[in-house]
Amino acid sequence: DLLIHEDSARDLGVHVGDTLQVTFVDQSTETMRVAAIYKDASILGNWVISLDMWDAHFAATTDQFVTAVARDKTDLPGAQAAIDDVLKAHPDVKAQNQAEFKKTIEGRVNSILVVVNVMLGFSLFIALLGIYNTLRLSIYERTRELGLLRAVGMARGQMRAMIRWEAIIVALIGAVVGLVLGVFLGVVSVSAIPEFNATVIPWGSMIVFLVVAGIFVIL
């Protein structure tokens, strides 16, 4: 028998009770019956076969993880103690309950987010260089215009304020447009992944980026 994730079942057009011709990595083919279709692929992946079927077609015999169910649901600490006692002979194996396993997965996701944030920092730095070059060029190309304004009576402080506000407006327009497009693309990307059933918009980070852009153009 074969257990199959609902996405793969939908792609193949199969239902419970149907049979499939399954080709393994050793190029052998087995006729298998779909015994169940499940929704959550976070642990099982898209396909589940029996250990006997695995041993017949794969050379790897090391378990990546093992799940256990407590016989007595009212004595979970006792079950944990029994597991820990068994694992004394296997120091490379770590036992976790559901909450701890969830934290481990969250830690992996957070590690990926750290890399993403580092890349985001690089992109922000590049964007700030772009702002700097754009503003420098805008001042350099308007030297005569600015000189004429000073000649007809504009005070030095007025000119500084004009240039600063112009720079802030240009930078914030670019930042707002970029954030709007980024949020739109992010929401579209998340909605395209069935396993993601929640969308969280990082308003705090977005406000920080706006403030950083405004401060940098002033500098």
Describe the structure.
With 219 residues, this protein is an alpha+beta fold. 59% of the residues lie in helices and 10% in strands. The protein has helices at residues 6-12, 51-57, 76-86, 98-141, 143-151, 156-191, 203-218; strands at residues 2-5, 19-23, 29-38, 47-48. It has a 4-stranded mixed beta sheet. α4 (98-141) runs parallel beside α7 (203-218) and α6 runs antiparallel to α7. The longest helix has 44 residues, at 98-141. The protein is elongated and about 90 Å long. The mean pLDDT is 87.
Task: Offer a few descriptive terms.
about 220 residues; alpha+beta; four-stranded mixed beta sheet; about 60% helix; elongated
Describe the structure in brief.
The protein has 219 residues and is of the alpha+beta class. The chain has 7 helices and 4 strands, in the order E-H-E-E-E-H-H-H-H-H-H.
C-alpha-based Rg, rounded: 30 Å
- Describe the largest sheet: 4 strands, mixed
Q: Which structural category fits the helices and strands?
A: alpha+beta
Tell me, rounded to a whole number, the average pLDDT.
87
Q: Give the strand content.
A: 5-15%
- Helical amount: 55-70%
What overall geometry do the principal axes of the alpha carbons give? elongated
Order of helices and strands: EHEEEHHHHHH
State the total count of DSSP E strands.
4
Low-confidence stretches: none
Give the strand order, joined by hyphens, for the main sheet.
2-3-1-4
- Number of helical elements: 7
| Amino- and carboxy-terminal Cα gap | 67 Å
